[in-house]
Each structure stands twice: as structure tokens, then as C-alpha cells.
Amino acid sequence: MLVKTFGSAVYGISAQTITIEVNVSIGIKYFLVGLPDNAVKESQQRITSALSECGYKMPGKKIVINMAPADIRKEGSYYDLPLAIGILAASNQIEANELENYIIMGELSLDGSLQPMKGVLPIAIQARNEGFKGIILPKQNAMEAAIVNNLEVLGVEQISEVIDFFDKGIKPLVTEINTRDQFTKNLNNFDIDVEDIKGQETAKRAMEIAAAGGHNILLIGPPGVGKTMLAKRLPTILPPLTLTEALETTKIHSVSGKLGNNTSLLTTRPFRSPHHTISNVALVGGGSNPQPGEISLAHNGVLFLDELPEFQRQVLEVLRQPLEDRTVSISRAKVSVDFPASFMLVASMNPSPSGNFYDPGDANSDAEHVVKKYLSKISGPLLDRVDLHVEVNPVPFEDLATKQSGESSAQIRERVIKARDFQNERFIDFDAIHCNAQLPPKLIKKYCEVDENGNRLIKQAMDKLGFSARSYARILKVARTIADLELSESIRVNHIAEAIQYRTLDREGWGM
Q: Which residues pair with 113 in a beta bridge?
């Protein structure tokens, strides 16, 4: 008897339905075809044991299973459950009346229990798009799938529950959540706050500007001044995720297996901080079956690179294209996958190997050539994509000892949201532009106009401080953001003056 069950395969952050055709006939042997990998081939032993524990058996006949489309490689152990149900139905051990209405996925343990899986959200979205009535999957993943409306989500713990559903009509409990309520409930849950940081008002101001305009930022200062504390609090002042952004971000983390069990929707912007020993593949993504890297896991959030010069230069250079295109393409011989990578880059570094600023009068500071060599580890093209360079200096004892709190994240966030709304109105006709950092050269001229006094100030800065031509556009975009924080349509001289301060590394002879 021939029976069809339906599973799903994840490629990139999208899913494709897999039809599992099971034919049980006279004869012997077990055949599994359709480009299964080793994990799928090993399912026979898990299925045999699981069925035995539930009082069923693997039929002693010829079993031919085809996983269609047969030219796409099937990977992972999550096909155990649809294979097992197909075998039972094809051997007439259970009824098969509703198999065509459900996507079935799950890895079987030898005792028949189900193990949690990854990539559930894109699978559920594809199931709904293709008109399936529901999805049957491990109970630990049910809340994640329930994000998708108009889809019946049946979370089960044992294969026996699935057998009873198809054979006896005993339906498992349907998992339902109110996606919008779940989303708004945890939207502003943070364990940290900007008011935890004493002093560093200049750096806080720079972080506010970066958040308001979506600008990349580099923090430069000796150890212990609070660079990491500042970076970790950036998500607390960024605008809240929209529901669309939350769904897209959750899909990426689901595919990567970064969502915890019994987790539904991500409601806060991601913050990723990879170690400086990371490889370029781990950073941008890849593998034989391409998986998202750290830059995609930071999509709609923050990628923090601590001790920037310690990263391999080759690793840093692969960031250049994603920073411009806000997407990364991974190409392999048989597959090409695009992962979204729209993130804010926050980097920190010491000014020298010893951690201190260069001081000719200090015998403990590094020599001039050592400092130059250290700074040269960061390429010009990469720095060209960082809008703000900020010096972070040690905090005086008086500021550390004060009991007076500074501004909270909520107060700063309110100003940032107003500035972003101001920008959204300006860029309403551009689908790919949402903040000032995304302005292409063509539109900088249109939206970052300055008067004669402003142009004169920029010219003086370029002449006296040795700014390069690449700094010009960055100054204009940052000045535009500073004006937006004041809800000003025009860029004034004071906005330009402040923007010039945030080009530390472009100053001729800086650090010497």
C-alpha cells in the first residue's frame, strides 16, 4: 500500500515541503531514497525501537520510501516521525485519513519520545502558506510554531499521541498564543539600564546619536573605562522591534537553533558579541548546508566587536560588503542562500597594545611605531563604514562616587524614537531606507544640505585636522541625525561642529 506523509526542509531562512512516499509490498529489505543524509538513513533503528515501545512493529515486508523532490538533499533527524507514521499507515497498522492535512516533524528517541528541533518557525509559515490544516511537532517547539496564525499546532511528547490522533481520533491539545499580546508584554524587558553608567556623558551622547540614526560606532579608550558597558546598553535605547522585525529575527534564531525550548517570539533587539578568535565563516555564515552567521543573528540588532584590532584582518574584511548591502549571500555548488544582515556595528578598542594613549613623557607607554602598527590592523575601507569614532576616557572619582543617577534608558529611548519617526516621514517614499545611516551618496546631497557657514566649518576641519574626503559624507549624515534629535528640518552650524568631534581616527596624526 502506498501512503504519503508530509515533512519540511529548511534552506536559509525559508522552508520547502517534502513529500514522503511510503510503499509497503511483498518482499524484504528497507529502501530509503531521495538524497537522505546519514542522520536520515539512521532513522530505521530509531523508528524500529520507538514502534516496539508503543506496541507496534516494523513490517517484515519490502519497504520503499522516497523523499520528494528527490534532487534536494534531506538533512537531519527530524524526519523520524513522518517516516514512522507513513510506515504504520502503509502497513495498515493505523488509519491514514488525515495525513494529507498535516506537516509532521520530529526526532524520535528509542522509547518513542520526541526531541526538540530547530527551524520550526519557517516550517510553520510555509505550512500555512501551502494550505495545510496544521502541524504536528515536539511539544517543546509548539509555542514557537503557534506564532503563526490560522494554523493548528499540535505539540506532542510521544509518538503514541500521534498514532492515537490518526488512528483513534484522540486529538492532542492545540497550542494557541496571542502573538500581539505576547509581543507587547515583553517589549521593554531589560535587566540593564544606561543610568547604571557613571559619568561618560560624551560617550552616552554619541550612543544616543548612533541609535537615532542607525550609525555604526567605534569606542576608543583604555581598559576599564566602560566601553563594554556602553555597548551592552545600546539595545535599551534603540526603538522597539516592530512585529514584522520580530518575526524575521525569530526566524533566523529558529533556523540557528538559538531559541530556547517553550519560547515563542523574540521581543528585544538581539545583541551578539563574538570572541575575537571567530572565523570568517562563523561571522558571515556558511557550511555545506548554509547556516546564518553572527552578522545575521544580529539582524535588527547590534553586533559588538570587542577589542577590534585583535580580530583577524581577514575576518574583519568580510564585514565590508554586508555593512553596505545589509544582506549576505552564501553560494555553494548546489545552493545559494541569502541571509538578512541589517545590524548596527559597535566596536571597541584600546588606543595601543598597552591599553593607554600614546604619551612621549610616559616611559610605560608604547613607542610611536608600535601604536601605528596596532592602529593599522584596522583597514581604511572598514573604518570608512563607521560613522562615529569616540574617545572614552577614565571617569573621575567624583563621578564614580556620586549617588546622583544620570538619564535612564527610557528617557533617551523616547528621544531616539521621535528622531526615527522624523526620519521615517522623510524617507516614506524609499522602501530600503529607514534611517540616516542608510542614505546613499545620491540622497546625501538632497537631505543633508548645509548653509554657507556650515560648509566653511567643514572646510576648516578638513584643512586643519587633515580629514579625508571620505569623512565629509559621514559628517553630513551624523549632523543630519543630530538635527533630527532636535526635530530640526535644517542642519545648523552647531550640529556640524558636534559631528566633527566624532571623527577621531580621521584626524591627521591622531594617537601620536
A: 158
Q: What percent of the chain has a predicted confidence (pLDDT) above 70?
A: 96
Q: How many angstroms separate the CA atoms of 54 and 59, rounded?
A: 14
d(CA 139, CA 156): 5
Q: Which domains does the chain have, with CATH numbers?
A: 2-177 (3.30.230.10)
Q: What is the mean pLDDT of the chain?
A: 88
Decide: 500 and 457 in contact? Cβ < 8 Å.
yes
| Region at 413 (left for phi over 0; alpha for psi -120 to 50; beta for the rest) | alpha
Instruction: Look at the chain and count its residues.
Output: 512
DSSP element (H, E) containing 49: helix 43-53
Q: What is the pLDDT of residues 235-276, one digit of tens each?
A: 999 999 888 898 999 999 999 888 877 777 888 899 999 999
* Calpha distance 248→41 (Å, rounded): 32
**Alpha-carbon span 370 to 354, nearest angstrom:** 10
Helix (H) or strand (E) holding 135: strand 134-138
Are 226 and 197 contacting, i.e. CB atoms less than 8 angstroms apart?
Answer: yes
Distance CA 475, CA 503 (A): 8
CA angle 371, 376, 377 (to 5 degrees): 110
For residues 443 and 434, what is the distance between their CA atoms, to the nearest angstrom? 13
Say how far apart CA 314 and CA 283 lie, in whole Å.
Answer: 11
**Which tens digits make up the pLDDT trace of 456-487?**
998 888 888 777 776 788 889 999 999 999 99
Look-up: residue for cell 531562512?
A: 13
Query: Helical H runs in 318-383?
Result: 320-325, 368-375, 380-383
Dihedral (CA of 495, 497, 502, 503) sign:
positive
Q: Which of 170, 172, 127 lies closest to 150 in space, CA to CA?
A: 127
Q: Residue ranges of the alpha helices (H) in 157-197?
A: 159-168, 179-185
Q: How far apart (Å, rounded) are the C-alpha atoms in residues 270 and 293?
A: 13
For residue 37, give every residue at least 6 positions away whose Cβ sits within 8 Å of its Cβ, in sequence order, or none: 73, 74, 75, 76
Whether cis (ω within 30° of 0) applies to the bond prior to 69 is yes
User: Residue 91 has what pLDDT?
Assistant: 93
Residue type present at position 437: A
In percent, the amount of the chain with pLDDT more than 90 equals 53
Lowest mean pLDDT: which of 84-88, 173-177, 200-204, 465-469?
Answer: 465-469
229, 197 in Cβ contact below 8 A? yes
Query: What are the backbone angles phi and psi of residue 434, rounded to the nearest 5°?
Result: -125, -15
